[in-house]
Specification:
By secondary structure, the protein is of the alpha+beta class. It folds into four domains: 118 residues, Beta-Lactamase (2-Layer Sandwich), CATH 3.30.450.20; 171 residues, 2-Layer Sandwich (Beta-Lactamase); 161 residues, Histidine kinase-like ATPase, C-terminal domain (Heat Shock Protein 90), CATH 3.30.565.10; 129 residues, Rossmann fold. The chain has 20 helices and 23 strands. The chain has a six-stranded antiparallel sheet with strand order 8-7-6-11-10-9, with helices on both faces. Strands 2-1-5-4-3 form a five-stranded antiparallel sheet. The chain has a five-stranded mixed sheet with strand order 13-15-16-18-17.
Length: 699
Amino acid sequence: MTEPLSPLPKQPNLSEDSIYRSMFGAYPDALLLVDVAGRIMLANPEAERLLGYPADELSGLMVDALVPDAIRPRHAAYRETYSHGPKARPMGSQMELVARRRDGREVMVEIALSPLQIDGEPFVVAAVRGIEAYPRVRQALQRASYSEFVAQMGRLAVDTRDPQLLLQQVPAVAADALQVDSAAVFLLDTTRLEFQVAGGVGLLASEGLGSRCPNRPDTPPGFVLAQGHAVTVADFRAEQRFVVPSDYLAHGLVSALAVPLVDRGQIIGVLTARARHGERFGADELHFLESLSNLLAASLQRSQSEEALNHAQRMESVGQLTGGIAHDFNNLLTVIQGNLQVLEDHPALTADTVAQQMVAAAARASRRGAELTGKLLAFSRRQQLSPTEVDVAELIDSLADMLRRTLDQRIRIEVAAVSRGLHCRVDAGQLESALLNIAINSRDAMPQGGTLSFSCATCAALPADVAAELGDRAQGQAFIEIAIADTGQGMTDSVRDRVFEPFFTTKELGRGTGLGLSTVYGFVKQSKGAVRLTTALGAGTQVTLYLPWQHGPVEVDRLLAANSAEELPSGLEAMLVEDDEDVRAVVRQFLLSLGCRVTEFGAAEAALACLEGGTRCELLLTDIALGAGMPGTELARQVRTRWPGIAVLLMSGYSAEMLQAPEDGPTAWELLRKPYERADLARAIARALKARPQNIAPR
């Protein structure tokens, strides 16, 4: 049996016109019906959305209004050509099509054209699709946008030398590019114990510029530093890895992305972006923020390097200035001191008490002037070391006593385990300065007080790293170890690794030059020793100097220092070479009073010619700097080579030329520094005579 057929469903009563209008309105692409004159006759809702026009404004608008100004003439010519031979054109047949929205913003689009006839009149249906809606295209456009922002910051970084401007611009660019509510730069301070807000936009009440937060793993920036890499927060409300500040949640912040600022392998800060909506940060955003952070870190490092270079140049300028003026200044002091000594011994003033007091006061002032010159040269690191026999225990006792009177009373000074009778041959002033530099650093590391202790002992065995650093110098040589320890804040590994670098400092601007410990290192190395630093954050610091041990006291220097004028040979034939006439007159008077017979010259060439002519000479006393002619060092070299029996004594006003004089070997000479007194000259002559070969007669 055949089953009865089911009745057909009732068909809607649709007219052709209503069907077309419904399809036109529901089409997912923007549709524009344009007449031959280029006027829009009809637009669907998607066209209104894509192009940003209200429903009643597109109809009647000329299609040229949707074309950017730059390409409008070309578009008009194309439309004119198309009207003479209209044909269907699918999407994708042209590249880089751009539409202009009502608000002026330009959007990339694809356009399909379909000509049609309505009641015998020509029209064109344009289907417009915004390609920014394509996921891959949108991603590519976003990446291009990020790249443009990075390029913008790169241009700014090249053009500006002001790090503060970059610290403000980088978070502003990050917030603008990522379309987030807040961005900030946190920089570690010099102690690496706190972060400081160095720049930002949309900052919270607790994050004003200059405000600080602890560098702890339970703080947002401290957590990034502890991790050592970028950190993404999906939802602050569910965050358990660190403590979320209450104002983050109060201001509706939901998600965040933070990346470390890295300078030469060391994290120096954090750049973070925060948003009020979740799932905002992906791989592209991470790459963009890392690019900004690298750019900022490089710019900050360049700024610091330029500042260090400028500082080094300033220091070099000071060094050149002091080295240049010291010779002339000390020549003046030599004249002043010498004439004051002559006046002091003058018979007319011997019984005049007032005159003697005036001469003594002037002599004291001239000595202070000489000390000032020495300090200037030490500051510029142009002072040559003068090794002498130093009792280390006595020096430490004296320094500790001074520190007890001058340092913060909350700092306890201890001298522990100091072995007596230990001597080393170093520059006593430079050793004391080195220990003082270390003590001052220790004081700064103990702002709330603590203990600073000194110890000194023979070194039973050098630490492996010190022995490796000394190399052959450690073979067969005993060392004294001088240790200075504090109970201060200690250092991180990264600070410890750089602590002896010139210009590196963890102190605030204006409180340190970064030269203290580098000077200590240079002095110890020049003294054929080594320096070692052990520290731990929160556990204090110990600096240990290893200096060659001088076994037993050296009596030679004391005997020579005790030499008086009467011990000099009577009638000693001395040749004096000094280009400054006033200085020459003072030294001649000193030599005559010491019983010498003096031949004097203002230039090395004349003195050399005199010797070649057969003039008898037992002692050559010459200044190092002799104007534009032959320097005193060259004269001394020729005299020592050709007439080795002549004793050589050099004089110097701490000039730069002094640094070129040989320090060791067979061509070393006695050096007398200006200004000096008659007794100093006598002792220097005695040493020079003792140092010459004894089996060779003088010329």
